[in-house]
Write a structure and sequence with these properties.
Blueprint lengths: L1 H8 L9 E9 L2 E7 L12 E5 L6 E9 L2 E7 L21 E10 L4 E7 L6 E12 L8 H4 L2 H6 L11 H6 L5 E8 L2 E8 L4 E9 L5 H23 L25 E7 L3 E10 L7 E10 L4 E2 L10 H10 L5 H7 L1 H8 E6 L3 E6 L11 E7 L11 H4 L6
Antiparallel strand pairs: 1-2, 1-8, 2-3, 3-4, 4-5, 5-6, 6-7, 7-8, 9-10, 10-11, 12-13, 13-14, 14-15, 16-17, 17-18
């Protein structure tokens, strides 16, 4: 209620008191984006920030030095690698980071612009010019730290929040950096190209054409997925800073891209109705163990949403039995150790390959049996007529009525 009353009395043209504010502009000749925990014209403790260079995309935490309404000074942390901080400690709060350059910023035009300078030590100051780019609500309660300010990145990286200008203008601008486009590559009835973010080297497909089908909805989904994974990769690298989750325990995890740079994304199927791809690799950015995976995805071109494969093949005991009876059994010892047949009902996943081939795989297994994941059987869809769903012919016209 207090927040509501204050909002009614104080008129802020750029942001409510509880909003984080994003600015974009330049530091010297470098393009940067800055997010602050509140509007500078109403600045008071706690007041923190984070910023990135567009060419790098890695968050740098900003800690308060002097905070007054209309003018603030914030200093940036230096990377807290093991050599600079310490080896593993049970309580990461005991680590004191080193600090680098400082921002001195003054609000102008009712907070629409920030002007000031950045200086490191006794070096020459560099001019800073920033323009208002958006706001978002802070989490409640807000702990007043850069890590709390950046907490939304976890939700974006794991898919809990869809990245947009509204949900997080700062992170949205981060993922709008120029991408590198590869050549057209034929697939099925159309073509795709691979698009790469040079900051992470994470590559992801975009459709070029699909036999006259509208590729717009599908490409919107593929772009969002690419941004989601890229956000997670850059967040992992930002954990080299004490203010953004550094705990000193994994020099090979925090401060790296977490394996996203080696993620293998393969386009596997394209028809006038569906697009399929796989994602595989080993991701690690702290935690108990890496995320080893090989996952398949199918997209409905008409809706731009993940496709329900139940519209093609009906899950049933008969289908599970078919897979058990016909799958590759050339490694009996491996089968016995994994218990493949017992896993099929809960973890069977199907995808499509060129030539309207259906691939049955085990996916989403717990880490302790993750090595048991992989393809079990590949068979023409036409050989599976006994298991077809009524809608199947709408997606595969060659099946007939």
């Amino acid at each position: 209620m207090i927040r509501i009353l204050l909002a009614a009395v104080v008129v802020l043209p750029t942001a409510a008191l509880a909003d984080a504010v994003t600015y974009k502009g330049t530091l010297g000749t470098h393009a940067i984006v800055v997010e602050l925990s509140g509007p500078v014209e109403e600045a008071s403790e706690p007041f923190v920030g984070r910023y990135f260079y567009l060419s790098q995309g890695v968050d740098i935490p900003l800690q308060p030095v002097t905070i007054t309404p209309g003018a603030v000074e914030l200093r940036e942390e230096k990377p807290c690698v093991v050599e600079a901080c310490s080896d593993y400690v049970a309580d990461a709060s005991t680590i004191t980071p080193e600090f680098g350059g400082s921002f001195r910023l003054t609000a102008q035009d009712s907070g629409q612009t920030l002007r000031g300078e950045w200086r490191e030590g006794d070096g020459e100051p560099l001019p800073v010019a920033l323009e208002f780019a958006g706001t978002r609500p802070l989490p409640e309660p807000f702990e007043g730290t850069p890590q709390a300010l950046a907490a939304i990145v976890d939700e974006i990286g794991y898919g809990g929040v869809v990245l947009s200008e509204e949900t997080s203008p700062y992170d949205y601008l981060k993922m709008r950096a120029p991408l590198e486009e590869g050549p057209e590559e034929p697939l099925g009835i159309g073509a795709y190209r691979v698009v790469t973010d040079p900051r992470t080297t994470l590559a992801f497909p975009r459709l070029v054409r699909a036999a006259g089908a509208d590729t717009g909805p599908a490409n919107a989904f593929l772009e969002a997925r690419h941004r989601q994974l890229g956000t997670a990769a850059l967040q992992c690298k930002s954990q080299q800073y004490r203010g953004l989750s550094w705990a000193g325990q994994v020099p090979f995890g925090a401060g790296t891209l977490g394996g996203y740079e080696d993620e293998q994304v393969e386009a596997t199927y394209l028809s006038p109705t569906l697009f399929g791809w796989t994602e595989s690799g080993s991701l690690f950015c702290g935690g108990a163990h890496p995320y080893n995976h090989q996952n398949s995805y199918t997209l409905d071109l008409a809706t731009g949403e993940l496709f329900d494969v139940g519209k093609v093949l009906v899950a049933s005991e008969a289908l599970y039995a078919y897979v058990r009876d016909n799958r590759d059994k050339s490694e009996p010892a491996f089968d016995a150790e994994c218990g493949i047949d017992e896993l099929i009902e809960e973890n069977l996943k199907l995808s499509f390959r060129d030539g309207d081939m259906v691939v049955f795989s085990l996916e989403g297994l717990p880490h302790v049996i993750g090595a048991c994941e992989g393809p079990l059987l590949e068979v023409p869809l036409a050989d599976l007529k006994a298991f077809l769903a009524p809608e199947a012919a709408a997606y595969f016209p060659g099946l007939g009525g």
